[in-house]
Amino acid sequence: MRDVRTTASEQHGRDLPAERSVWNVDITTPAIVLGSRQTEAELDLDTCVNEHVEIVHRRSGGGMVFLSPGKQMWLDVVIPKDDRLWIDDVGRAAWWLGDVWLAAIESLAAARKIHAHVHRQDLVRGKYGDRVCFSGAGPGEVMMLNDAGNPAKIVGISQRRTRDLARFQCTMYLLWEPVLSQQFGRLLSDPNDGRAELQSNLEHSVMPLSQITSGLSASDVLAAFMAQITLV
User: Fold this and answer.
1) Is the pTM above the cut of 0.70?
2) Per CATH, which fold does 2-229 belong to?
3) What residues pair up with 165 in beta bridges, in sequence order?
């Protein structure tokens, strides 16, 4: 396991070696990360500059993700092609990783029975899933019903594959407050009514760790994850 304290752009641009590894990424500045098919036209660039939010382009698909220092756990998990965990089927390749995350979450919330699951179907976009990662559900991601009985995402996973490796970029929000939804909304190029609707959607589609169990830190999550991944 490797700890890195860096910017989101530096980590996304880093070529990781083709060896089984976990990179624990602690970002130093806020960032909005666009999927490979998204463009900066979807953002209010002046607001991004004024709020000192870095704009990052990743090489994997899916919707955008908003990152803020200390608010999420970001792990890059690398599996080389000759590893027994490698799966050729892209749609199934992250299932095992979702199982690891689910076991870690259940161990952290041992005092509470949670009804979370690993999404094992095709991508479910929902209304905003094409635009915002945590508004949809992709294969291997960990989901849970919120208080209203609607699906919410605990762990988002994007996948980047080369000839030599699969790189799974995992995000779990430790805390998600209305102020984060509002800041995310301000960064978008939508009219105000569109922003408000998306902000409301995010407040219900993100399931942060703080809503599952309290009093835990990023180091607690990392320890639980590493304990489970060593078993696979």
Assistant:
1) yes
2) BirA Bifunctional Protein; domain 2 (3.30.930)
3) 80
